[in-house]
Write a structure and sequence with these properties.
This protein is mainly alpha-helical. The chain has helices at residues 25-34, 51-57, 63-78, 83-92, 97-111, 116-121, 129-141, 144-201, 207-219, 223-243, 245-256, 261-282, 287-296, 301-315, 320-327, 332-344, 347-403; strands spanning 3-9, 15-21, 38-44.
């Protein structure tokens, strides 16, 4: 989106420079007037190295950012504040530069007569299909504030679920990084010192010591670059393969079969599916559209295929529960509760109950995973350091025997 530079005069008569992102010169002028400024000069910013635009480009809009925005937006709309005025208030207190730029552009579009949902659709990095569809349903039903509150609750639940999983992975990742760093440091810098001592003493080295010396020699030679190149190439091939539909399905299916981790992925996917699908249907979004959105936000290709099969089943006049049962991805309890929700006409209520249940299950699984990983990582770290120390001290025992 182009950036415009304006020299304006505020209500106190003071002149100042303002920068604004807008689709056109007219939109920028309209927005500035809406802010109460008298526009003295307005022109498009010259192209060049703009660090602010680089910052915006590489900034991500987190789930928490969208949740806070939704909660504040809902409060303003519920209080009777107009959408344009609400966006102006939110723009002034937004700390995320990418979201701030999107709010400015949305405000300019709304002032020119574009619907809020259509204006948000232009910024997929900030507002995905789920967000836009719920806002559109709120506009059509005249319950925008209620839908925004539901969005805020949904995003807060998703953020909480993500934080639980990240907290479980934080410990093993940190310990693993420290283990590798300590191993490399001792292998590259400490072992060569002892190797020189052993060479001067002329001691016959045990097999373990010879192996560690070989590892140290490899890490200090150009072969280390070859190993790094192989790792980088393997990572690149993996990423390329995962981007394909077949590769993603194969890898995601494999991940679901891993003990503990697969159980965690399945439960978190079911919780995300239930919470998102329930929020969409409760907000008045059509079921087929809801399933399409949920499919794209599932995070697992196997689960996405099951959801897509359910969407096709409904198009042919079938039921969601029957289609999900055929794929054998969702737990039996989930299928039964969805079936009851379809029969009673309270599908959204049942989906919310499923989400509450599996979010608690995810929390318990995270605790179990953490309790298992902690001793494993300690043993691995101790084993790596112990192996290095043992390889250095074994030759010393032979030296002591000779001296004795």
């Amino acid at each position: 989106m182009p950036t415009f530079v304006a020299r304006v005069r505020d209500s106190q008569g003071k002149s100042k420079i303002e920068k604004i992102a807008a689709n056109s010169l007219a939109q920028a002028r309209t927005y500035l007037r809406q802010q109460g400024y008298v526009v003295q000069d307005l022109k498009k910013q010259s192209q060049g190295l703009d660090f602010k635009q680089l910052q915006i480009k590489f900034t991500n809009v987190s789930v928490k950012d969208k949740a806070v925005f939704s909660r504040q937006f809902a409060a303003l709309v519920n209080a009777g504040v107009t959408i344009v005025r609400s966006l102006s208030v939110l723009d002034q207190q937004c700390n995320n530069p990418k979201l701030k730029q999107a709010i400015l552009g949305i405000s300019a579009d709304v002032q020119s007569g574009v619907n809020l949902s259509e204006a948000m659709r232009k910024y997929p990095d900030c507002f995905d299909g789920l967000y836009v569809s719920m806002v559109e349903a709120g506009e059509v039903g005249g319950v925008l504030d209620e839908v925004l509150n539901r969005l805020a609750k949904l995003l807060e639940d998703i953020a909480r679920l993500q934080n639980q999983i990240k907290s479980a992975l934080a410990y093993p990742v940190v310990v693993g990084f420290l283990a590798i760093a300590i191993f490399l440091g001792m292998t590259v810098f400490l072992i060569p010192i002892f190797a020189n001592i052993f060479q001067e003493l002329g001691t016959e080295l045990p097999a373990l010591t010879q192996f560690m010396l070989l590892v140290s020699k490899v890490l200090r030679s150009w072969w280390f670059l070859v190993i790094i190149s192989i790792v980088v190439a393997a990572s690149f091939v993996y990423r390329r393969y995962y981007k394909t539909r077949t590769g993603r399905k194969t890898i995601d299916r494999f991940l679901l079969k891993i003990p503990l981790l697969g159980n965690l992925i399945q439960k978190s996917s079911v919780a995300r599916f239930s919470r998102t699908f329930g929020s969409l249907t409760r907000s008045g979004v059509p079921i087929l559209t809801s399933l399409e959105i949920v499919r794209d936000t599932s995070g697992n290709q196997v689960v996405a295929n099951a959801i897509d099969a359910a969407r096709v089943e409904i198009q042919q006049g079938g039921m969601i529960s029957i289609a999900l049962q055929k794929e054998k991805v969702f737990p039996p309890m989930t299928i039964q509760m969805i079936s009851i929700g379809e029969e009673t006409g309270e599908l959204d209520t049942m989906l919310m109950k499923i989400a509450d249940f599996y979010e608690d299950e995810v929390e318990q699984t995270v605790k179990a995973l953490t309790s298992v990983l902690e001793p494993i990582m300690i043993v691995v770290l101790g084993g790596m350091i112990g192996t290095i120390l043992l390889s250095m001290y074994l030759p010393m025992f032979k030296v002591f025997d000779k001296l004795g």
